[in-house]
Amino acid sequence: MALPGLLIEYLINGILALIWLYPLLKRLGLADTNSSYLPLFALGLYVIGMIVDYIAWTVTRPIKFRIRKRIKERYGFESNSSPGISHMRQVKFAIYAPEIAKEAAMRSSRDRIARGAIINSINATIVNSILRTNLLLTLLLGLVASIICTIMWVSFEKVSYSFEVIAEQAINEKIEYEKYK
């Protein structure tokens, strides 16, 4: 993934974290700060976005492996869980099909933001449950938001990985065809 993509993804996850960070900052009296601190604030959001993404990656990883196993079974590919397979696929895309590499990167970006939204919705539910008076409504809305974010991430992950597996198969067939041409 190119640096600008990661920069934007982490900033988006950091900005989404404001949903649960702002009430905490307000409670601590830090919500109304001097504008000279805005560059540090932006950097802080970026770092928080990285933390949220790492937590989201850790939490969703087992589910991701199950999704990928089912996709491989669905398309009749042997399950290969060796480390680095995904990276090798990305390199193959970059060498043989740069447009597919760009498409896969965009899909990965969407997946990363969606998985960050899961963690941000859970954190927002926890923080707002502690700080708000209407606990039942906060918990209900938080649960609904978390479920919706999870469904979105699972859907995006399925579509993205299906695309990658099918694209890799097409590239492999093209490479094989070129050998005998």
Tell me the layout of helices and strands.
Blueprint: H1 3-27, H2 38-75, H3 85-96, H4 98-131, H5 135-179
Helix pairs in contact: 1-2, 1-4, 2-4, 2-5, 3-4, 3-5, 4-5
Note down, in words, how this protein is organized.
Helix content is 85%, strand content 0%. The chain is mainly alpha-helical and 181 residues long. The protein has one domain. The longest helix has 45 residues, at 135-179. The model has no long low-confidence stretch (mean pLDDT 88).
Shape: elongated
In this structure, how is the largest beta sheet organized?
none
How far apart the termini lie comes to 33 Å
Mean pLDDT: 88
Radius of gyration: 20 Å
| Protein structure class | mainly alpha
Estimate nothing, just give the exact number of structural domains.
Answer: 1
What percent strand?
Answer: under 5%
Count of individual beta strands: 0
Count of runs of 4 or more consecutive helical residues: 5
The helicity comes to: over 70%
Weakly predicted, low-confidence segments: none
- Helices and strands, in order, run as HHHHH
Quick rundown:
The chain has 5 helices and no strands. It is mostly helical and 181 residues long.
Which structural traits does this protein have?
85% helix; 181 residues
